[in-house]
Amino acid sequence: MEQGWYVDEEVIDADLCAELHRELMALADHHALDAAGIGRGQAHALRRDVRGDAIRWLDRESLAQRRYLEAMGELQGALNQALFLGLFEYEAHFAHYPPGAFYQRHLDSFRGRANRVISTVGYLNPNWPADGGGEMVLFDAMDPEREVARVRPTAGTFACFLSETVPHEVLPTRLPRASIAGWFRRNASLGGRVDPAR
Protein backbone atom coordinates (compact mmCIF):
# COMPACT_ATOMS: atom_id res chain seq x y z
CA MET A 1 0.00 0.00 0.00
CA GLU A 2 2.92 2.37 0.58
CA GLN A 3 3.94 2.30 -3.09
CA GLY A 4 0.56 1.44 -4.60
CA TRP A 5 1.72 -1.62 -6.54
CA TYR A 6 3.10 -5.16 -6.18
CA VAL A 7 4.92 -7.46 -8.61
CA ASP A 8 6.41 -10.90 -8.07
CA GLU A 9 7.38 -13.96 -10.11
CA GLU A 10 6.09 -17.53 -9.80
CA VAL A 11 2.92 -16.39 -8.03
CA ILE A 12 0.54 -18.30 -10.31
CA ASP A 13 0.86 -22.08 -10.40
CA ALA A 14 2.82 -23.24 -13.45
CA ASP A 15 0.30 -25.93 -14.45
CA LEU A 16 -2.56 -23.44 -14.18
CA CYS A 17 -0.64 -20.94 -16.34
CA ALA A 18 -0.13 -23.64 -18.97
CA GLU A 19 -3.84 -24.58 -18.99
CA LEU A 20 -4.95 -20.95 -19.26
CA HIS A 21 -2.37 -20.28 -21.98
CA ARG A 22 -3.64 -23.21 -24.05
CA GLU A 23 -7.21 -21.99 -23.63
CA LEU A 24 -6.39 -18.45 -24.72
CA MET A 25 -4.31 -19.57 -27.69
CA ALA A 26 -7.19 -21.82 -28.84
CA LEU A 27 -9.57 -18.86 -28.63
CA ALA A 28 -7.14 -16.75 -30.67
CA ASP A 29 -6.67 -19.51 -33.26
CA HIS A 30 -10.46 -19.80 -33.68
CA HIS A 31 -10.97 -16.01 -33.92
CA ALA A 32 -13.07 -16.13 -30.74
CA LEU A 33 -11.62 -12.94 -29.22
CA ASP A 34 -13.01 -9.41 -29.48
CA ALA A 35 -10.98 -6.33 -30.34
CA ALA A 36 -10.48 -4.38 -27.10
CA GLY A 37 -11.72 -0.83 -26.85
CA ILE A 38 -11.21 2.14 -24.57
CA GLY A 39 -13.79 3.96 -22.46
CA ARG A 40 -17.10 2.73 -21.07
CA GLY A 41 -20.71 2.99 -22.13
CA GLN A 42 -21.35 5.58 -24.83
CA ALA A 43 -17.70 6.64 -24.69
CA HIS A 44 -16.51 3.14 -25.71
CA ALA A 45 -14.45 3.16 -28.92
CA LEU A 46 -12.02 0.95 -30.83
CA ARG A 47 -8.69 2.80 -31.09
CA ARG A 48 -5.96 0.57 -32.50
CA ASP A 49 -3.56 3.52 -32.25
CA VAL A 50 -4.05 3.37 -28.46
CA ARG A 51 -4.69 -0.31 -27.73
CA GLY A 52 -4.04 -3.36 -29.89
CA ASP A 53 -5.08 -6.39 -27.85
CA ALA A 54 -8.08 -8.70 -28.22
CA ILE A 55 -10.02 -9.98 -25.22
CA ARG A 56 -12.48 -12.55 -23.91
CA TRP A 57 -14.13 -12.11 -20.51
CA LEU A 58 -13.68 -15.01 -18.10
CA ASP A 59 -16.99 -16.83 -17.62
CA ARG A 60 -16.00 -19.78 -15.37
CA GLU A 61 -16.69 -22.21 -18.23
CA SER A 62 -13.41 -24.08 -17.79
CA LEU A 63 -11.81 -25.59 -14.73
CA ALA A 64 -8.73 -23.43 -15.29
CA GLN A 65 -10.83 -20.27 -15.27
CA ARG A 66 -12.59 -21.36 -12.11
CA ARG A 67 -9.28 -22.09 -10.39
CA TYR A 68 -7.91 -18.66 -11.33
CA LEU A 69 -11.06 -16.86 -10.20
CA GLU A 70 -11.10 -18.81 -6.93
CA ALA A 71 -7.52 -17.69 -6.25
CA MET A 72 -8.55 -14.09 -6.93
CA GLY A 73 -11.48 -14.58 -4.54
CA GLU A 74 -9.03 -15.57 -1.82
CA LEU A 75 -6.95 -12.48 -2.56
CA GLN A 76 -10.09 -10.32 -2.42
CA GLY A 77 -10.92 -11.65 1.03
CA ALA A 78 -7.37 -11.06 2.26
CA LEU A 79 -7.32 -7.50 0.92
CA ASN A 80 -10.67 -6.69 2.49
CA GLN A 81 -9.62 -8.15 5.84
CA ALA A 82 -6.25 -6.40 5.92
CA LEU A 83 -7.10 -3.07 4.31
CA PHE A 84 -10.87 -2.64 4.72
CA LEU A 85 -11.27 -1.83 1.02
CA GLY A 86 -14.87 -3.02 0.66
CA LEU A 87 -14.07 -4.92 -2.53
CA PHE A 88 -17.36 -6.21 -3.90
CA GLU A 89 -16.45 -8.40 -6.87
CA TYR A 90 -13.76 -9.30 -9.36
CA GLU A 91 -13.99 -9.15 -13.15
CA ALA A 92 -11.31 -10.35 -15.55
CA HIS A 93 -10.60 -11.09 -19.19
CA PHE A 94 -8.03 -12.88 -21.27
CA ALA A 95 -5.84 -10.44 -23.22
CA HIS A 96 -3.99 -11.47 -26.38
CA TYR A 97 -1.50 -9.07 -27.96
CA PRO A 98 -0.37 -10.07 -31.46
CA PRO A 99 3.16 -9.09 -32.54
CA GLY A 100 3.46 -5.32 -32.77
CA ALA A 101 0.53 -4.61 -30.43
CA PHE A 102 0.80 -2.26 -27.46
CA TYR A 103 -1.36 -0.26 -25.03
CA GLN A 104 -0.50 3.39 -24.46
CA ARG A 105 -0.06 4.83 -20.97
CA HIS A 106 -3.34 5.07 -19.06
CA LEU A 107 -5.15 4.68 -15.75
CA ASP A 108 -7.69 1.89 -15.27
CA SER A 109 -10.11 4.12 -13.39
CA PHE A 110 -10.68 7.86 -13.21
CA ARG A 111 -10.40 9.16 -9.65
CA GLY A 112 -13.81 9.24 -7.97
CA ARG A 113 -15.70 8.34 -11.15
CA ALA A 114 -15.65 4.54 -11.28
CA ASN A 115 -15.52 1.55 -8.97
CA ARG A 116 -12.34 -0.24 -10.05
CA VAL A 117 -10.08 -0.19 -7.01
CA ILE A 118 -7.23 -2.65 -7.64
CA SER A 119 -6.04 -3.83 -11.05
CA THR A 120 -4.37 -7.22 -11.54
CA VAL A 121 -2.39 -8.81 -14.35
CA GLY A 122 -1.46 -12.49 -14.44
CA TYR A 123 0.98 -13.55 -17.15
CA LEU A 124 0.72 -16.83 -19.05
CA ASN A 125 3.64 -16.80 -21.54
CA PRO A 126 6.05 -19.74 -21.22
CA ASN A 127 9.77 -19.15 -21.80
CA TRP A 128 9.43 -15.45 -22.62
CA PRO A 129 12.77 -14.25 -24.09
CA ALA A 130 14.57 -11.16 -22.82
CA ASP A 131 14.07 -9.47 -26.21
CA GLY A 132 10.39 -10.44 -26.54
CA GLY A 133 9.09 -6.97 -25.67
CA GLY A 134 5.57 -6.63 -24.31
CA GLU A 135 6.66 -5.46 -20.86
CA MET A 136 4.17 -3.62 -18.67
CA VAL A 137 5.68 -0.38 -17.37
CA LEU A 138 4.38 1.09 -14.11
CA PHE A 139 4.84 4.78 -13.39
CA ASP A 140 5.01 6.71 -10.13
CA ALA A 141 1.56 7.90 -9.01
CA MET A 142 3.04 11.24 -7.87
CA ASP A 143 5.38 11.67 -10.87
CA PRO A 144 3.74 10.02 -13.91
CA GLU A 145 6.89 10.47 -16.00
CA ARG A 146 9.03 8.37 -13.63
CA GLU A 147 9.14 4.64 -14.32
CA VAL A 148 9.04 2.54 -11.14
CA ALA A 149 8.80 -1.00 -12.53
CA ARG A 150 9.08 -2.87 -15.80
CA VAL A 151 7.35 -6.26 -15.76
CA ARG A 152 8.34 -9.01 -18.19
CA PRO A 153 5.24 -11.00 -19.22
CA THR A 154 6.63 -14.35 -18.06
CA ALA A 155 4.30 -17.18 -17.03
CA GLY A 156 3.58 -17.08 -13.31
CA THR A 157 4.37 -13.41 -12.81
CA PHE A 158 1.58 -11.47 -11.11
CA ALA A 159 1.13 -7.72 -10.71
CA CYS A 160 -1.47 -5.65 -8.89
CA PHE A 161 -1.76 -1.90 -8.42
CA LEU A 162 -4.18 0.87 -7.47
CA SER A 163 -6.48 1.44 -10.44
CA GLU A 164 -7.04 5.17 -9.93
CA THR A 165 -3.48 6.29 -9.25
CA VAL A 166 -0.87 4.11 -10.99
CA PRO A 167 -0.34 4.95 -14.68
CA HIS A 168 0.90 2.05 -16.78
CA GLU A 169 1.44 0.96 -20.36
CA VAL A 170 2.22 -2.15 -22.39
CA LEU A 171 5.23 -1.81 -24.66
CA PRO A 172 5.07 -3.21 -28.23
CA THR A 173 5.42 -6.96 -28.19
CA ARG A 174 7.54 -8.96 -30.64
CA LEU A 175 5.73 -12.23 -29.91
CA PRO A 176 2.11 -13.21 -29.19
CA ARG A 177 1.57 -12.09 -25.57
CA ALA A 178 -0.97 -13.75 -23.27
CA SER A 179 -2.29 -12.51 -19.93
CA ILE A 180 -5.35 -12.11 -17.74
CA ALA A 181 -6.27 -8.55 -16.79
CA GLY A 182 -8.65 -8.11 -13.88
CA TRP A 183 -10.13 -5.59 -11.48
CA PHE A 184 -11.37 -5.76 -7.93
CA ARG A 185 -14.40 -3.50 -7.80
CA ARG A 186 -16.27 -1.60 -5.12
CA ASN A 187 -20.07 -1.64 -5.17
CA ALA A 188 -21.10 1.80 -6.43
CA SER A 189 -24.86 1.19 -6.58
CA LEU A 190 -26.72 4.45 -6.10
CA GLY A 191 -30.30 5.68 -6.44
CA GLY A 192 -31.72 2.37 -7.65
CA ARG A 193 -29.00 1.99 -10.34
CA VAL A 194 -27.02 -1.21 -9.89
CA ASP A 195 -23.30 -0.80 -10.50
CA PRO A 196 -21.77 -3.23 -11.34
CA ALA A 197 -24.66 -3.85 -13.72
CA ARG A 198 -26.07 -7.37 -13.78
TrEMBL record:
Family matches, as Pfam families: 2OG-FeII_Oxy_3
Listed InterPro entries: HIF_prolyl_hydroxylases, Oxoglu/Fe-dep_dioxygenase_dom, Pro_4_hyd_alph, Pro_4_hyd_alph_FE2OG_OXY
Entry-linked SMART domains: P4Hc
Keywords in alphabetical order: Dioxygenase, Iron, Metal-binding, Oxidoreductase, Vitamin C
Protein name: 2OG-Fe(II) oxygenase
Fe2OG dioxygenase domain span: 83-186
Protein species of origin: Halomonas kalidii
Cofactor: L-ascorbate
Gene3D superfamilies linked: q2cbj1_9rhob like domain
